[in-house]
Task: inverse folding
């Protein structure tokens, strides 16, 4: 009864942060709960479930080695598992959970929350910033973060005189031969093997053939090291590019580790700045990467809590279609960009930001898919998924389902964008340049279809003026709408 029980969620695997920061074996016991909800609550991607379970078991073992009493229990859900132990302990504490669902269920059983310092911006501080703003632009938040944290700042001004190097970044993939970086693979140990056996008979998607995700802090540090040495220098220029020749391009592959606490944002930033200071990294690449960590990641987490629990139900465009069958089978479509992207998700539970946004979400938005359907699929299939990060990225940024609270205009594009930013279109069955032919790229046809069917929603949005004006000038708009209807029907029937 004298000891405090710390509940460690599967996304809180850090000894030096949160509830574990001051814990000692003499005064604290630790519990992990592997809930049925977590194992059987959805048809998860194998890579995702394997990663979460194995990383937590490795971490539990490390805490045991340190002398802690560690319980790793299986239960219907987290709250009932913890409650069964409550009488034996003075109190139960845990880090502020990363979803509303877990927060509510743990609060109901009297768990005390410790601030989640796996982010650089406390929730109350983000709220204070949001309330001081007319609109919640990421760029303004990011500049505020740079100033507040003193990162890439010299005498109160941005280092190099500019906040943003996007115009030097965002290049298409190189046409000539180019050596893309390689990434570490991680040898599986006995804990990993045990988890693989446990997952064998579950109804899951994807495969575990790829060993690119490690399940320990050591593996996470190896990935950070590899990124800094091999990928960081060209992170900026190719951050938006897509190519059949490299699945990860120059991306860091750090999100899974960051999101479960095996790495922290401050250590990643410090390591990146140290590399920059050696003079090997351009300011454009360094700024582009720092922006992702102190800007986008913190902004998304802040918005999740600021917008509240009901935000996930937003559906501004009243989109009601079910998810397209091709999301469940990469081999079922002849659209090269889509099949490559889905195949990547099946193999690794990961594709980078642009395929998530401009291929998968773009296609769902253009086909009027219900935002919650896309949210659920993404949440089940990505290795780095969590409620706090998926909800604003899908509902706000990708599907424009919040009517512009987060992004003032929808991220939609036709085949021309995909053709410019990738090498997918070369041997694709569809032509990105036409819109009404049988072999017209579905993205191109549906881009105009989207603008046409949603024209009333956007008529007062000055950022959509140019796009709507372009649509009004199309001479074949009727034929495009007819073709668009056929394409949506074909995609919903799994025939395209
Ligand atoms: C529809 C959609 C869904 C997404 N779902 C997730 C998700 O479930 N989990 C997740 O961590 N990221 C998500 N992202 C953001 C981004 O795609 C991933 O963080 C990134 O692809 C992870 O790969 P990386 O570590 O190589 O990232 P890098 O490109 O190397 O970027 C570095 C880091 O920046 C952070 N970051 C960059 N953009 C974002 C963002 N929009 N939101 C949050 N963090 C960001 C990540 O921590 C990432 O590790 C999503 C984006 C979109 C458009």
Result:
């Amino acid at each position: 009864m004298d000891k405090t029980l710390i509940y460690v969620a599967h996304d809180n695997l850090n000894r030096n942060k949160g509830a574990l920061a001051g814990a000692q074996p003499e005064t604290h016991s630790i519990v992990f709960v592997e809930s049925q909800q977590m194992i059987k609550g959805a048809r998860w991607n194998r890579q995702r479930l394997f990663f979460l379970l194995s990383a937590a078991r490795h971490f539990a073992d490390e805490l045991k080695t340190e002398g802690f009493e560690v319980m790793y229990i299986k239960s219907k859900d987290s709250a009932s598992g913890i409650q069964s132990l409550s009488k034996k302990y003075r109190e139960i504490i845990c880090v502020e959970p990363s979803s509303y669902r877990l927060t509510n269920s743990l609060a109901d059983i009297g768990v005390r929350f410790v601030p989640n310092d796996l982010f650089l911006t406390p929730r109350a501080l983000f709220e204070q910033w949001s309330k001081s703003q007319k609109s919640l632009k990421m760029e303004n938040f990011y500049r505020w973060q740079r100033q507040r944290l003193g990162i890439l700042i010299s005498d109160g001004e941005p280092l190099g005189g500019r906040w943003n190097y996007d115009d030097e970044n965002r290049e298409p993939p190189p046409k000539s031969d180019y050596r893309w970086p390689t990434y570490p693979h991680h040898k599986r140990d006995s804990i990993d093997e045990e988890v693989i056996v446990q997952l064998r008979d579950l109804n899951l998607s994807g495969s575990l053939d790829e060993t690119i995700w490690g399940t320990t802090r050591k593996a996470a540090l190896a990935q950070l090291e590899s990124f800094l040495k091999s990928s960081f220098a060209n992170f900026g220029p190719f951050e938006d590019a897509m190519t059949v020749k490299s699945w990860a391009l120059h991306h860091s592959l750090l999100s899974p580790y960051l999101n479960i606490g095996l790495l922290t944002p401050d250590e990643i930033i410090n390591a990146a700045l140290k590399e920059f200071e050696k003079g090997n990294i351009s300011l454009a690449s360094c700024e582009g990467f720092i922006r992702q960590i102190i800007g986008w990641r913190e902004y998304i987490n802040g918005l999740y809590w600021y917008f509240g629990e009901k935000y996930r139900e937003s559906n501004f465009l009243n989109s009601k279609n079910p998810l397209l069958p091709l999301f469940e089978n990469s081999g079922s479509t002849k659209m090269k960009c889509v099949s490559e992207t889905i195949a990547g998700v099946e193999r690794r539970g990961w594709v980078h930001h642009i395929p998530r946004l401009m291929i998968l979400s773009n296609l769902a938005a253009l086909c009027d898919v219900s935002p919650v359907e896309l949210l659920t699929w993404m949440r089940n299939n990505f290795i780095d998924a969590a409620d706090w990060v998926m909800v604003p990225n899908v509902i706000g940024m990708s599907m424009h389902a919040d009517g512009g609270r987060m992004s003032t205009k929808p991220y939609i594009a036709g085949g021309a964008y995909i053709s410019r930013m990738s090498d997918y279109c070369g041997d694709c069955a569809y032509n990105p340049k036409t819109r009404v032919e049988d072999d017209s790229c579905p993205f191109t046809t549906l881009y105009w279809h989207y603008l046409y069917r949603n024209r009333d929603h956007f008529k007062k949005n000055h950022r959509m003026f140019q796009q709507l004006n372009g649509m009004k000038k199309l001479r074949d708009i009727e034929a495009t709408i007819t073709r668009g209807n056929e394409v949506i029907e074909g995609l919903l029937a799994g025939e395209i």
Remarks:
- The domain at 123-183+213-307 is CATH 1.25.40.80 (Serine Threonine Protein Phosphatase 5, Tetratricopeptide repeat).
- The chain has three domains: 4-114, 123-183+213-307, 313-492.
